[in-house]
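so my prof wants the structure for this chain in the tokens format not the other one, which i didnt know existed until like an hour ago. anyway here's the sequence
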Amino acid sequence: MAPPMSANGILDALRDEGLTVVEVGDWRTHNRNHKGPWGPVHGVMIHHTVTKGRDHTVRLCRDGRPGLPGPLCHGVITKDGHVHLVGHGRANHAGKGDRDVLRAVIAEKALPHDNQANVDGNAHFYGFECENLGDGEDPWPEAQLLAIEKAAAAICRRHGWTARSVIGHLEWQPGKVDPRGFSMKTMRARIAERLK
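here's what i got, hopefully its the right format
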């Protein structure tokens, strides 16, 4: 179990990993903390946005959409490999997921199949939304994949976690498919290599 990093801690961790970070508006205080707890944190969750265009994507992830208020993540990773910080605290990104998956993340063990939605992931995961249509055809530029690797590694490094603390939304909640277009197994291998 770990308390969440401060806003400055997240910013420093990302920059120390060599990332270009864009601070969006009042991101340090933009959250959903009035709806439930933020922490203890146990891992990092990766998503795709089903959007196109940097500005539109960042705005949507910051402000949300009808029925799902923002922030929809902590950071948006755009195709150019930049990380746009849009929130700090509880964010509407993970939703309810599988308690057995959470236990595996905490223990840093292989993930079981997600077949339940019985625990609040918004309290326990940092979330990165990644600009992509999610259709399996929209490309993932290497700059973006490298930024995903670095951002996840940055969080893991600060908390002393391994790459097994990084999961995709599709590994957390039944019926989710994101991120689509690359393998989380391959991404975890990249993160593990970076953490060596």
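also thought this was worth mentioning. The helical segments are 7-16, 54-63, 99-107, 142-159, 184-195.
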